[in-house]
Design goal:
This protein has 21 helices and seven strands. It is mainly alpha-helical.
Length: 450
């Protein structure tokens, strides 16, 4: 290998000498340089010229190059995209605005496509040797979250799109998909009300304690305080209720004022003195310290009450949920109008659909507006038009009443013997859920004969 070859990432040193072929191709103009005095220790021949070091020599060399071919040390001012400048092996790029940008709705469609449901065969694979089915959902949903965060950190436009109400819906969907395959989301209901969905999803994309480097495999976050820390760091950043009862904390405020409305959790401790377990209530130390400082400067009782009030949820989150409920209500009413039904206030299924099934993602995917309207039409048919269904329920009632009249007390036992359920309402709901004989067209939509 030549002495000048320093590897693929380094440039070869340029010399002022050219071969005959290169000189013929480039037709370079020779630059005259003043000869310098040679030292006795110099082994370089006098015919070899070295790289110019002065600005004047560089300018002369740039003028000597032919037009249309630029060297690595000169700037390409014609290109609209990249201007490269090499300085001591470091290359910097200056990007100019090209004027071409996708609108926000296009980026929204791309982000929504990232979180769409994929085929079942892509979520599972078959082991090559054992032939067993391997679940890949955890890897797939993890990569989706990584993609969303990468999009949000690309530029200001994507950051604005992914930080809006639409972005919150996308992060919520990706987070709930990951909940099905990860136990790290246990206790998510205890998260602070001000915590956004993208903040919740952030804890599922990485490992390690956020405060130290001693525990790089810490995986489960503490949703109460919204952090992912090891046991030692969490102990340093929290304070228990026994410590808050000391005079150093309660000097300017009471225990109730210091802890009212603050997030807290309970952990089990062990008393060496009493040789028995006990329960500790933990609070975030910085939150208690900030409240103590505010209370020490408060002058009126109303101001102290305002400081101790619990934090209100984010307004963006409230508006997002309100708009989503309104959208689901309109969709359900439209589907009910098509089959001649109306939205009932006593329908538990329609109420859960409008609220979005907050604790079950599977039910949210199963019960669409069309399916809910169809189920409500089925219930209307069974309770108002199906004679067989009504006769079955009436036969149950008569048989239970006859047994009660003969044997006396124990009405619940008779219900179980007749229906298989201890409660009569549960038996009726089970009969309705298992009923399969429904008409192709609802009776109330059939035009009466004249």
């Amino acid at each position: 290998m030549d002495a000048e070859d320093d590897g693929p990432k380094r440039e070869k040193k340029r010399t002022r000498t050219m071969t005959t072929t290169q000189a013929a191709k480039t037709k370079a103009v020779t630059v005259k340089v003043e000869p310098r005095a040679m030292k006795p220790s110099d082994d370089v021949p006098s015919t070899t010229a070295k790289k110019p070091k002065t600005t004047k020599a560089k300018a002369e060399l740039a003028k000597a190059q032919p037009s249309g071919k630029s060297s690595a040390t000169s700037s390409n001012k014609k290109g609209p995209n990249t201007i490269a400048k090499t300085t001591k092996g470091k290359t910097t790029k200056k990007m100019e605005k090209s004027g071409v940008a996708l609108p926000d709705d296009v980026w929204g469609a791309i982000a929504q496509f990232v979180c769409e449901d994929v085929d079942e065969d892509k979520l599972y694979s078959t082991h090559r040797k054992t032939g067993e089915k391997v679940d890949k959902r955890k890897v797939v949903y993890k990569r989706r979250l990584d993609t969303l965060f990468a999009m949000r950190g690309t530029n200001k436009q994507l950051c604005r799109v992914m930080s809006s109400d639409f972005g919150e819906e996308i992060f919520q969907l990706a987070f709930e998909n990951f909940c099905e395959v990860s136990d790290a989301t246990h206790g998510i209901d205890n998260a602070p009300p001000t915590m956004l969905w993208r903040h919740k999803a952030f804890f599922l994309t990485g490992l390690g304690c956020q405060s130290c480097d001693a525990h790089p495999t810490t995986r489960k976050p503490n949703w109460v305080f919204g952090v992912r820390m090891c046991k030692d760091c969490l102990q340093k950043h929290t304070v228990i209720h026994q410590e808050l009862e000391d005079e150093s904390w309660t000097k300017s405020a009471t225990y109730e004022e210091l802890t009212k409305g603050l997030p807290h959790d309970e952990v089990q401790g062990w008393s060496q003195f009493y040789r028995s377990p006990y329960t500790m209530i933990r609070f975030w130390k910085q939150s208690v310290t900030n409240r103590k400082a505010l209370l020490s400067r408060a002058k009126t009782p109303s101001e102290r009450e305002r400081i101790c009030a619990p934090p209100a949820p984010k307004q963006d989150k409230q508006l997002l949920e309100k708009k989503a409920r309104e959208k689901r209500t309109e969709a359900l009413k439209a589907e009910l109008d098509l089959i001649g039904c109306e939205l009932r206030a006593d329908s538990k299924l329609s109420e859960l659909f409008i609220e979005g099934f907050p604790k079950s993602l599977r039910l949210r995917k199963k019960w669409t507006a069309k399916n809910v309207a169809k189920r409500m039409a089925q219930m209307k048919y069974l309770h108002e038009y199906c004679r067989e269904f009504q006769e079955t329920i009436q036969d149950w009632r008569e048989e239970i009443n006859d047994m009660f009249d003969v044997y006396g007390h124990g009405y619940g036992n008779y219900t179980y013997e007749v229906t298989g359920f201890h409660r009569f309402g549960a038996a009726v709901r089970d009969l309705a859920d298992t009923w399969t004989r429904f008409p192709k067209q609802w009776p109330w939509l059939i035009q009466p004969t004249t």
